[in-house]
Amino acid sequence: MNTNQNGRLWFVIAGLIGITLVISGRLVVFQLLQGSQWEERGRDTQVLEVIARPDRGLIYDRNHAVLAANGADYQIGASPSLVVAPAEAATALAPILQVPRYEILAQLESRLPFVLLSTRVSSDIADAIRALDYDGIQIDSLPRRIYPQGELLCHTLGYTDLDNVGGSGLEGFYQADLAGEMASAYVNISPLEEQETVLAREGVDLVLTIDRSVQYLVEEHLARAVRAYGAEGGTIIVMDPKTGAILAMANHPCYDPYRYFETEADLLINPSVTQLYEPGSVMKLVTMAAALDSGTVSPQSTYYDSGVYELGGARVYNSDKSGPGDTDMKTLIARSLNVGATHLAVETGTDTFYNYMERFGFGRRTGIELLAEGAGQMHLPGSAYWTESSLATNSFGQGMSVTPLQMISAVSALANDGYLMQPYVVQEIHAGDDVFVHDPKVLSRPVSAEAAQQVSAMAVYAINTQLWRAQLPGYTVAGKTGTAQIPENGIYHPTDTIASFVGWLPADAPEVAVLIKLDRPTVSPWGSETAAPTFAELANELVVLLDIPPDTIRLKADIMAARAEEE
How far apart are CA 175 and CA 369, in angstroms? Predict the structure, then answer.
């Protein structure tokens, strides 16, 4: 080995030694001086945030037909640098997205990393764009609530906004339960570590007391009545008086919950539980019940009706301007005499009368599971808004306000031996494997069974003698009409009214109670000529759908059952 070769060898050896020292030094730094820092960074690269989003719970009718479910809209975007033929793509996308071609082309030729072509489109549009198969076009799904039955039960269901938040009705009231709860965690994704499962709390499912077939029938009759009597709108509620279960709740006009954003805000509220109105003469049933239960009168009592009653500086007249003279209790109800109702309230006594009104639930919410329920308005003695004449007007349903739900709940207590039940629309809540079933709840017992049955008999007499348009062949019906003036700007409108009817059947063993309310009918202002016949037409089909047998068949079956028990 010559001198040059020897020098090169030592140079190589020195280089290797230097490299070795550098590597060893770095290893010492990494492991000893910076070991903890690199260990932490290593763990970070193996950790990923995992987010689990729950599905919103479904809403079913009582027979498990889907009323509210989950679907998707789609967001259309693009990465301009990946679009090979922007002019061609813009030409194809423009008619589908209904956006001018030049706007799309400008976005596809931009230097931005990502552009948004449309914020929200339907699945049909998304499918059409997907079929084009252009590189760089991105289609992302967005959760969206869908309503398979269209406008059916719109106010009761409510709606869910584009952020999947319930805005009214059941969707709003049960927002937290239906939405569930998102879960997130930082999970170590190293194959050497045990993987953690992240589970969201899924939204609960609701099963309602309402049958969509019954609801459809009620909505059809309501729309027909609004058209036939030239009304601005209306409400029909069908309730089981024994339990408080709502069998149908319809309002007109309705709206499409899927396209709620196209609807005026006032139409999104549920008039059945939110809209206040003066009920008119339907309230005479409650006034009579209070007088009977308190012992103020009996069914055989009479009074003298001169046709006018002066109280607190105000004069009360009968709606037909009559003065029938000596009058009994059943005639008072049948002829709907304002003077008679005032007489009952005065004889019952101010404090006692309003005590009964509160026991029937007026002036407070029923507690139904629907968003934005109103409490009504009933000024009590001692209030700055109460005067002595209020006792008279309140006795026949004026000068106070109620919701339709409050009114049918109160009258249903008379059909249920005096028990006031809490109305409800959710029969079951399904949370995973757990099922919570609603138990009927008694809110109060404002009157005795005897007083309730006495009022019911008077309401049957009213149907048979005066309100013949509400009769239903084969069935004994109890009911009462209401025709109330509408207060506007401190005075009553000279012509417009709220026409209503509340009835229940079979009168001796009620299975359904029905409230009909028509707003500002123009064909006739009277409940007896608008709401009462609407009840008869609806009830004629309702008894078939709910399988309520005629009196003769039902009573015959009861007799045979009683004989079988004796044997």
Answer: 11
